Amino acid sequence: MRIFVYFLIGLFLFSNPDLAGKKIRGYDIVSQDKNENITLYGKKTNGLYRGFKIDFKGEIYTKPFWISEISPSFPPQIFYSDINTDEKEELAITLTKGHGTGVLIEDVHVFHTIDNGLCEVIVDNPLAIINKSVKTKLSNQEAEIQIEKRKYKVDLLLFGVNPENLFEDISFGSIIDYEVMNHNLMVKVTGQISPAMFIGDIIITYEYLAKLYQAKSIEFITDIDKNPFYGPVTQEEIFNPGKNKERTTHFRFL
């Protein structure tokens, strides 16, 4: 009789994956897509989530070396979307490595789904992409960013920037923010010219090529109204930003 009861309990849990994956001892649910039966668990250790488990449609995947800050404002996120046009959904998970005043640093992990299982795929580092593809100059009067033949200039004199506070060159890395939009994996990397001033965002859209996700397009956007990370922007605006070689900017101060 006892064996029969255990069998019924096991059958009930197996047939109800939402219930079976609801709790893992010692772990918190940090992100969840109930519609797709995907749950991300993190283990709290010394004020951080250290070590994660992914419940992907009833299968558990352990990621013991993942680390993310515990932040209600910037929690880990789950994206489940076809981001490489293979007519299958891919799983993307973002983790928060650091945040604060003028700082948001995220990491991303992308998985292809094979036979309803997960296989992690490399995503090219956005800072490496910028270092390879973007040229910058910074003087007391002007900031300049060049991507291929497109050149963007910002007149610093119009904004009364104190030259003593300027960096030697435009800096990238204090804000790295990943999103999935319109079935595209994208990252925003903000350009900074002083400890309290940002001049715009490098927006990288990824594509899957040669067994990794690498840059499909790179755009520098200074106008918040045209930035997809701050509101709806059409595909045409993202991939065909226009022929203007020089753009104006909306400064952002801390």
What does this protein structure show overall?
By secondary structure, this protein is mainly beta. The chain has two domains: 2-123, no CATH class; 126-253, no CATH class. Helices cover 12% and strands 52% of the residues. The strands form three sheets. A six-stranded mixed barrel has the order 7-8-15-14-13-12. β3 (48-56) and β4 form a beta hairpin. It is globular, with a radius of gyration of 22 Å. Mean pLDDT is 86; it is low at 1-20, 233-239 and 241-250.
Concise summary:
This protein has helices spanning 2-14, 17-20, 126-133, 235-239; strands at 28-33, 38-45, 48-56, 59-69, 77-81, 90-100, 103-114, 117-123, 134-138, 142-147, 150-155, 171-181, 184-194, 197-209, 212-221, 252-253. The protein has 254 residues and is mainly beta. A 6-stranded mixed barrel has the order 7-8-15-14-13-12. It has a 4-stranded antiparallel beta sheet with strand order 1-2-3-4, with no helix packed on it.
What is the topological layout?
Layout: H1 2-14, H2 17-20, E1 28-33, E2 38-45, E3 48-56, E4 59-69, E5 77-81, E6 90-100, E7 103-114, E8 117-123, H3 126-133, E9 134-138, E10 142-147, E11 150-155, E12 171-181, E13 184-194, E14 197-209, E15 212-221, H4 235-239, E16 252-253
